[in-house]
């Protein structure tokens, strides 16, 4: 049986109300959609290094019998039969990544990104469209959930195009955020000396607000161009977000500083801080990490691909662990967070090496994605599972890169792979990043947007073209084939 | 404002009762003739009862009205209101058609009350019969004549309609470099930015129409199916269909190599394209001589008022020099002519270089290397072993330094430059540590900035802009000259004996430069690696390691990234938009590399890219120079060349002749040192040939202008819209058309100035995009939206963090050092601090600036105000002579405008007001002082003073907070203390300590200054 999303959320609300009914006459909390974190593995990851193992010497250093089953997933070893081992900051230990966190992860293999361009690949992965003019999924989430939040859409780089639907805030160091959140403090510390006493600081702020109002009137009177008028209004409005920033700074103070050498962990920490404030200061974050473009030296022990993959997984593990297990993030967990990890596209089999450099791997359109539902999102996501399949062969002939098996729906609307990359037939379709984004949009509540009168929903304004019709029908029926199994 | 004038419309209709089959036809009755003429909104109405065949027959009333009040754009949308009355009026399927095809068709189902409104759009004028089809029964309800008193020319219709709707999809193949001419196709479209883009486009269409008609290539419509005829909106009397229409729409039938480009389902696009074709075929504007107030020049500039000459000078000085113009400069500007003269001083100011380098880095993004340790692959970089000595442990290569041990890079045994008596001997150790960690940063910076230094020199010397890619030189400072092996043992004298030595002052080494060729020396062994070379194969920025690394290549990329830059950055050809780039049809087992040769859509782009990629044969990897020529690539790559001209010296049989791009690179393994042999390692560099071609191409001027236009105006370069469902389609199309015209003016200045940068900068500053101030009058919503999309306007955009940083230092007198530590880099100048939050870039992962306000930028503004005023006010008051102060020349700390009882002290109060006016004038660049704002600042000063006197809790300390006190010079380096008593002269300025503030005046001024600096007038450009 499957639960339609709205039914599930209503059940949640009822449950919540029952808990508090002794304290309040009525709990009228409206269900909030989950928050969203997208993680971009920059410059095309090689998923045979991690979640889509193939023990073929054309693709990997490990053999088939060295492939691990861990956390419910079939995964590549880091080296030999050694699993990926990552630091867990919260408990100051080191853990087997997939054994510890694999149960949260829904792996999607055989996603065709239909491009090998570093410009187009990230766009397809994180907006669902090959064409220009589509915002990142994280931007859409922020635009629907909280366009006026202080850090509505936070990004540390990568594909974060907003198409103007929401303002983008670039991520930075936490100490810097504290400094900006406390503009009247000599440093970012809450107890550092103030530039002005509170009453004088209030006078300055009041004077600024009054100035903004007068300037707006003046611009109107001067028939200033609309961009000047709207940007001035935006600045005036932006000044009003100060409290949200301060909440963020207080949250950062209360949480252990996580300025880590792993830049994904640092960026993730800031995003989590923004999301755990009540109300959340940040609705979505796009975290860009690393450089996986190993055209050469793919297997270098220090700078090679699996080392970079390990660092990426470490950052992902940090996110999972913090949300699921850190009491400071209880509100965030209760709200629910959806994490989506993807990349430009995938990589080929080994190339011949360049000049005197070691061999590497080149670009290939077929890749994988990871979808992780945490907290209130968790029951909807069958973690520790894999959908989609790839093969390095077609009719026994080794291919330059992994070939994706087409997919179809079984009687229960679960996705099952075909038997050959070239198989055609009723109901079979190629899974692309378009379908993945289509499913994520639904899971994130974007289809339930109630736009202002006279405007269209964002999902209509940026309707994804060429989504498989069968896939569309299943999602419309309340099933999410990327996130759910029956 | 021209308005649509809708002439002649009435409709009457009657309809019989609904019945399936056998129902009598609806009678025609057009009683009423022409309706009222409409002025302004141009409404016309007609109604009538008409006679039917039965008393219960529904009647129809049809009224026509325009949707917009001012449809002055050549696209008229109007509504047809249909009211069916009678017993069977509701739920009827109604279609409205016009004959001949002109306005779009429309239809729907009548409501329960029999009403229906159908909206039609017409892009052409003319008289059309309107047919109303009610459930299959057609009634001709009369004529509507659509005239546009505003007439859009063919060229503007091309720009605003035909190009976005259809032809922008064709140019991917049908361009001068492209796949179609390689097959011998005649139809070649220009790209935006080509001279006379719109007129050339119209001419190309006209030529093609005439050609296919004359040569019998047009499609015989009798061969088409009814469905195809319906798709193409063919009339019965149209015997032939222009191939130009058939190919993109029925490409799968006509054998169009590009297939179907406009889907048959895109009815509106087809109609509008057909309308345009029809106008071109007609040979003249259908607007005709009767047009009133015809506008044949879509140019939103006409909707603007511009900054006055003085206001323009102010904006230019702030933007380019981060300063206010002096009073004398302003007085000298009285009109456009004197403005042009005054701008020369601004443009020639050395501070303009700094701004332009930021603009050019936004284009090149080579500053990404500042934060990265460059890595060089293979043995190709001639100085690799030298360079790697300066890298941290773990960098690729041997003998890497370990920077966790500070002296390690200078390990005697590893000293790479060996500056002892035998400077060319890399083996003998040197006792002194001459290259240490601090030098490592200098070298890394010099290498990263080399392309920008070349541009700086071209600007400074007023050289032709083409030298940025043709110049056989580079610019080195002492660090870079050393790493290139150009210097003698003293680190100052050049080995060539002719280049002027560097001075003996290391303090200016970062900025002291020489123009050089990197010749072969014993220290760099260029000739050892390639006997045919006696120097680095310079080609301006394209041969610098920094650029080569930013646009790196691999075995599969094969220099195509670099070729893409050639097209996009130096020719303004949007390579990534030429084809819908997807790989869904990869044949099983086929290598991706070979797809570029023979598979759509790959060949569309690779026809352009691959030949140009081949000219980079002497450069490879991530910044290294391949001195030896790359072996021929016999599969998957077109022969080196540009356009359809083969690279001379390539040994190709068609060398120097125009040739189809499909010829394989037939490089023959001659091994004789002259041809493109696989074993040939002595072939000379040929990037020089390419750069000569590119710099001579007309589009080079356009490409050179684009980054300057975008950087100086803040307006992104617009693309034509490509989706009619976009509610902003028309506004975007108009904005695109207008911006292209603005850019064309700057391109004309470039050419008139013999290809130099200075005239371009001047033209941009004098142009409407830079000087836009306000709207000239009331605009319709569409025009307002178009203007908004242009992103122009005084005060529209936040200043970039770099310019703001310099502005603070220049106008306020102190830098905004992070956390007030003058030894730290400035808060807005470092992406480790606030620059990214303030909308800046790091050139690596954040490559697009943000100029719009968001919450975090408001937070930056608040901190800016508080922190800068904290330092600036006491420091300024520390200057004893008011005439030497930057800010507070009109008051002293003793000027307290209210006494202890709150009474005004008139003289002091007047001085305070004067000072406030000066602050507003200086920091907000105001000519005419807004007295309301003076009052507001004054009120804040008084309120702050009183708050300090009577705090809500406790008492206010006499001394200013320690973090803000002026007790020493606020400079990098030696911070000379101010004496507790008396004064000290520093750099000719007498200063005193400012820490006590018994009257709270200093702190009150800090409050005022904070509010001024955080205001939009200081933050926006």
Task: Report on this structure.
The complex is a heterodimer of chains A (486) and B (1021). In chain A, the strands form six sheets. In chain A, strands 8-7-9-1-10-13-6-14 form an eight-stranded mixed beta sheet, with helices on both faces. A two-stranded antiparallel sheet of chain A has the order 2-3. In chain A, strand 15 (390-394) and strand 16 (397-404) form a beta hairpin. In chain A, helix 3 (120-127) runs parallel beside helix 12 (433-443), helix 5 packs across helix 8 and helix 9 packs parallel to helix 10 (305-325). Chain A has 486 residues and is α/β, with parallel strands linked by helices. Chain A has helices spanning 5-20, 97-101, 120-127, 137-145, 174-181, 198-221, 226-239, 242-254, 263-276, 305-325, 330-335, 433-443, 458-461, 469-476; strands at residues 35-41, 68-70, 73-75, 85-88, 93-96, 105-112, 153-155, 168-170, 284-289, 337-343, 346-350, 361-364, 366-374, 385-387, 390-394, 397-404, 407-409, 415-417. In chain B, a hairpin with a 2-residue loop joins strand 9 and strand 10 (137-148). The longest helix of chain B is centred in the middle third of the chain and has 24 residues, at 437-460. In chain B, the strands form eight sheets. A five-stranded antiparallel beta sheet of chain B has the order 1-10-9-6-7, with no helix packed on it. In chain B, strands 2, 3, 4, 5 and 8 form a five-stranded antiparallel beta sheet that branches. Chain B has a two-stranded antiparallel sheet with strand order 11-12. Mean pLDDT of chain B is 77; it is low at 1-58, 66-75, 288-296, 374-435, 627-635 and 653-685. Chain B has 1021 residues and is α+β, with helices and mostly antiparallel strands. Chain B has six domains: 4-148, Immunoglobulin-like (Sandwich), CATH 2.60.40; 154-282, no CATH class; 299-348 and 698-794, no CATH class; 364-529, no CATH class; 561-615 and 630-680, no CATH class; 801-1019, no CATH class. Helix content of chain B is 36%, strand content 10%. The interface between A and B is large, with 100 and 103 residues.
